[in-house]
Known about the structure:
By secondary structure, the chain is α+β, with helices and mostly antiparallel strands. Helices cover 22% and strands 44% of the residues. It is built from four helices and seven strands; from the N terminus they run αββββαββααβ. The relative contact order is 0.24.
Amino acid sequence: MHVIPSSHQDLFGLPAIWHVATIGPDGAPHVSPVWADFDGTHIRFPHVEGRQKWRNLCVDGRVALSATDPANDERYLEVRGRLVGWEAESAVEFLDTMAKKYRDDDEFPRKDAAPLDKRLTAVIEPLYCTTMG
């Protein structure tokens, strides 16, 4: 069963900024923008080990993501899911792929990606979604 309807999967192909909500250790929500992609099964977004979102997801893997269509602010997709893992291998290459999609740059600036050995890709299993438009 596909959780994300085909009518809104195109948002992952657009340079739409995704807002990721996680739950902090004190139960407070934490929201931050990310670049994201969907392979038909999992949502992925680049991240760095040690940051707040990483710490939150290591304790509680529940996550929500939402984005608005850049061409139609009344069309959006919200996805709730869970972290199924962190990918370290090819994390920098994934970041480069996102830089191409979002900035039309062939490579994400290495000085801004440092430390490269702490780069990860979050892998999210979508469990539920809502849409509009």
